[in-house]
Every structure is written in C-alpha cells, then in structure tokens.
Prior knowledge:
By secondary structure, chain A is α+β, with helices and mostly antiparallel strands.
Amino acid sequence: MPFKIIASQCTSCSACEPECPNVAISEKGGTFVIDAKKCTECIGHFDEPQCVAVCPVDNTCVIDASLPRYQAPA
Amino acid sequence: MDASAQHGASTGGNVAEIGEIMQVIAEHKGCGTTSGKGKAACGSAAGQGDLPAEIWEKVKNHPCYSEEAHHHYARMHVAVAPACNIQCNYCNRKYDCANESRPGVVSERLTPEQAAKKVVAVASTIPQMTVLGIAGPGDPLANPEKTFKTFDLVSKAAPDIKLCLSTNGLTLPDHVDTISRFKVDHVTITINMVDPEIGAKIYPWIFYNHKRYTGVEAAKILTERQLRGLEMLTERGILCKVNSVMIPGVNDQHLVEVNKAVKSRGAFLHNIMPLISSPEHGTVFGLSGQRGPTAQELKSLQDACEGEMNMMRHCRQCRADAVGLLGEDRSAEFTTEKIMAMEVEYDLDTRQAYQAKVEEERVAKVAARQDELAELAGAASDIKVLVAVATKGSGLINEHFGHAKEFQIYELSTAGAKFIGHRRVDMYCQGGYGEEGGLETVIRAINDCHAVFVAKIGGCPKADLTKAGIEPIDQFAHEFIEKSAIAWFKAYLGKINAGEIQHVERGDAAIRQGALITAA
C-alpha cells in the first residue's frame, strides 16, 4: 500500500490517473490521490511505478513510509 | 527507421502528389518576397493566389494557417487536455506551457461538455470565430478521450467550425485514424529537432509505452514518432503545421535541417517561434540563463527557411484557453461561470451573413493594395525598410499608439508590403496618459523600424519616437495597412531620390519576454 501524492506539489494535470493499472488514483479536492488499499507499486504490472514515471513534478508521487510496503501475493 | 521504410513502401503514389502540392505552395510563397516587379503573385481574389482550391478552402478562414486570414478571423482554444507525456526544458508544468501559452497563468480546465457549451457561446458572440483548437495545457493526444469527446460534441453542435489540434507528436501515430475520422483537418506538431543529440538538450524525459526514457534514447523515440506521425497525416491529406522553438546555441542552426525534414514529409507551414525563458517562469532554460533570440536573429532564420516552404510569422504563442483574433484575448469574457449561466442558441445564418461581409472587406483590402502596387511598379530600388502598425484587425490602421498591445511589422520594398511578424509591448498607455518607462519598452520592441503607423498618437510620444529615429505616422488613420504602407514607402523613395533624406539602416529589436496580458 505504498505510494502517495504530495498534494502541495500536485499540478492536477491528471496524467497519472489513466496510467494506474489498479485504478487507484482519483481526483479529490482539486488534486489527485492514491487509494493506498489498491496501490500495488505496479509490481506485477510494470517495471516502474507508472505514477512516478509520468508525473511532471519530481518527488511528488512517493512511497508512503507510514504504511507497510506492498507484498505480492505468493 | 521504420518510419521512412513504411512511408516509401506504402505511399509511392502519394509522395508524388505531395511533391506537386508543395511545388505549388512554394510558388505561392513567391508573393511579395522575390519578384521585385511590384507585382504580388498572391494578390488574386482575397489571397488564394496559386494555392489549389481544396487547400485554399481549408486555410482561407483559419487565422493560424493563413496570415491574410488572421486579420479577419478568430480562433478559440479549449483547455480540456491537462496531462502531458514529455518534459521540455522550456516548460514548467506548474503553469501552462510557457512557450505556447501565457506564462505564469493556469488555463481554466474544462470538461468536454463545458468546452462544447463554451464553443457554442463564443461562436454566437463572435461570428468571425471559425476555428476550435485543442492545444493543452498539456498534450491533447496524452488526453485522447477528453480531446476526441470534445471534438465529437462540437462537431454536432457547431458543424461549420473547423477543428484543429496541436501535439508534441509522441503518440500521434496511434491516433491518426481517429483524427481523420473526426475530420480534424489541421494538426500542429511541435518539432524542435531531428537529431537526438540535440533533442537530449531540450527534452529531459519522455513517458512512452509505460516507461520513462531519458537523454538521447528519449529524443530518438520522440523524433521517430513525430516524423512518422507527420508522414501519416500528410498521406491522408490533413494539413500539418510544424512549430519549432528557436533556442540560440542549442537548435537555432539545426532548425534549417528540421525545416528540410518536415518539408520533405509534406508539412504545409513552418512556424519558428522565439524561446521564452524568463527566470520567473521557473523553467530549466529560464533558470540556467538560456536566452531567447533577438528579433533580427529570428527573422534571419525565418528568411533562411522561407525559400524552402511557407513560414508562419504571425504566431502569438497564445495560451491554451485563448479566445479571439490572434493578438487579442477575450477569454475573460467567457469564464466557465459566465458560460454556464448563458442561454445560447447556435445561429448558423447570422454567422454566415457576417462572414460574407468579412469576405467583402478582404476583397476590398486586396484591391486597394493592388492599386497602390501598380503605381509603385517601375520604381527600382534595393532598399527594404520595416514599419510597425497599430491595428485592432480587419487589415486597418485603427489602433491608438498608446492602446496597442502589439505592433504588426511589415517589410516594405519595391515588391510591396510583406507581413513579417508582430512585437508585443506592454500596454504603454494606461489610465489615459503615457508613462516614460512604457514608451522605452515600445521603442526597444520596434527599434528596427523606420516608421510606426497609428490611428492616433499624443504629442509627447510623437516627439520621443522621432528622436529615436522612428517616424510616427497618423495621416493614414483607419485606412488599409498595406495600401498605406506602400504609399508611404513610395514617398520615402521619392524623398531619397530627390536628395531630401538619406536612407539609414536601423538596429536590432528586442522580443518581449512574457506573453500577451490583457488588462481586464
């Protein structure tokens, strides 16, 4: 459950929303948020987290250290 | 590599056709540039010249594709496409693209439904609005659903409006069939390089096929996709304009190569724009001190490419939600709040009646220019001078010097008056009286001009302009620009021949950093 979007840096460009393979990203209060329950860090889908790769502002889609890392089902 | 292979293999017949069209266009471009006989090749009717009828039909009411049309017809952009799939060093995504829209300001983002309603409202208020473009604020083809949904709704609600879009080209090959299906007949691709080594200095990264690519690898993918997309569009008869940002020391010389590459792939028009890179925009180039070109550097490059193909010189680098004639911005009249409160009915008849009137104006303007040119015929001189014109549109000298937000620049020679660009200026006159600092800005912006044509001008600026060597001229107020400029030039040559004055070359001029800002 690991990625989050730092709202103060989000430009609301929406680029991340359609790229998320888990449909975990949605607009909320003018910026975009990641549903931690749905995020899989793109493990099993892509080589790199799609929100991080497409986001125009560096260090805006980041690991949420307050939550445990995603564990792929065995 | 697959791009050129595919082109050659599948479209041998089309290549020849495109070649023919380009030839015709190249000849059309002869107007006002080379003939030296005072006989404008492109002066017939209202500017059709030698363009094939089907191409003329597509461009004649399009302010971006026809310099002549931009005096009469308006366009609007709807900001339905916020996402982008590449990063450019001249762009800071916290704002809209700094080079193709108003820096430092975020466009009001619309849903496709809001956008369609806005188009109908604007078209009913501004009957000369003939073109809807989607240009961002990100990349329209990185938001394909929103972009095409908007086109779908607009084509149903306002079927006479031409649709166009502007893209960085990365995903263009994937969308060419959809573009064709929606009858989008103008596409602009921003191509700043065809050499990945140069591209790496302009694009830090691209996002392609679920992966972020950087450096030369990124630029190589981008250029291949752009050129392939261009070929695919021109094969389908869709008119393509190529935008290039001129970045001195990075791609300025290289843009001659870009010009050749896009011409050979059937591009209709090339628009070389100056880099905008003020530090306050927070772009990589802005922060690194990368400068933009001067007016003369830009003109030299445009002139060098002109023999090759049509050059666009009337681009205003407008924002992604611009509304109105190029050079004016009426977007503040059409905020989402105002649009949603408006009851509008689409009135095609009124629009057509209005546009018929505009056509009469255009014909009258061309006829006036032809008459004046006929009198200039026979005058032999190598002298070329630039003049600035204050205008609100319709091809007339109809703006007060102090109210002008920009000046249109014409190059005068015995071949006639040729539009070569415009210069933005800060609103010099605010609150009814001139300000010293503002006037200096204006003089810097038109410092390469011998004269400035205005509808009206106050005593103080008149004296200061004269002192700076720029002759203020108000005796042609509310007359046609080209006719008046040619008449003035004829008199200028006459005075030189009579020994009354001496021709002196003017210096360079500054391109104002920052875009048009409308005082609300």
